[in-house]
Amino acid sequence: METEEDMDLTGKLLIAMPGMGDPRFAHSVVLICAHSAEGAMGLMVNKPTEDLRMRDLLDQLSITPEAQARDLPVHVGGPVEHGRGFVLHDRAYSSTLSTLDVNTEFAMTATLDILEDMARGAGPGKAILALGYAGWGPGQIEAELAQNGWLTCDADTDLVFETTDADKWEAALTRLGVSSLMLSSEAGHA
Fold first, then answer.
1. How far apart are CA 29 and CA 25, in angstroms?
2. How far apart are CA 26 and CA 19, in angstroms?
3. Quick one: residue 148, left, alpha or beta (phi over 0 = left, psi -120 to 50 = alpha)?
4. To pair with 159 at 20 to 30 A between CA atoms, which of 44, 53, 172, 176?
5. What is the sign, positive or negative, of the torsion defined by CA atoms of 18, 16, 124, 60?
6. How far lies 150's CA from each of 15, 24, 82, in Å?
7. Integer Cα distance of 148 and 111 in angstroms
């Protein structure tokens, strides 16, 4: 059995349980990009912003997109550093400056060159653009798991990149064989 000391959630999905105390994470699905004894960092992959798209960000950064550039929605990556951008993407792309390899399927880049590549219609084939991130201090994520704040499951590119944002939470639960109807925000009530 895994102890908290050897638990490594890197590359896993956290699925918020109903009734989680923090409303910012209600019905969220978070891909953990890094997890160690120092803490954890991840990106919410199912919370698009209301009205911000990639072309808006490119405009703010004075990057002119070419006609073939995709116009992806911008996601809320988490409650920390809302002004900082991250691109979660498939491993086929790697930045010339700095890409964090999360696992065999996912990588994350937070340098401007990926946006420049995407504006040219190059860059990763599959990507989620996010502002901000979710962060946990040492032992915090393990404590939240122990208090049943989150469920975990393996992440794959179909769920993260191909499933609609509105369906990701339910789809992640389904992978675990759990129905959201079976989950209660209050223990002891049928």
1. 8
2. 8
3. left
4. 53
5. positive
6. 5, 14, 23
7. 35
Q: What is the dihedral of CA 21, 27, 32, 35, to 10 degrees?
A: 20
Check: CB of residue 185 under 8 Å from CB of residue 19: yes
Phi-psi group of 178: left, alpha or beta (phi > 0 → left; psi -120 to 50 → alpha; rest → beta): beta
What the block records as the tokens of 148 is 């049943």
Superfamily of domain 4-182: VC0467-like (3.40.1740.10)
Please give the single-letter amino acid code of residue 19.
Answer: G
**What averages of pLDDT result for each successive group of 10 residues across the chain (190 residues)?**
65 90 89 95 96 92 89 94 93 90 94 93 93 95 91 94 95 86 53
Cα separation of 50 and 139, whole Å? Answer: 33
Neighbouring C-alpha atoms within 13 Å toward the C-beta of 14: 33
Q: How many CA atoms lie within 13 A of 79 on its CB side?
A: 8
Closest CA to 37 of 71, 78, 81, 7: 7
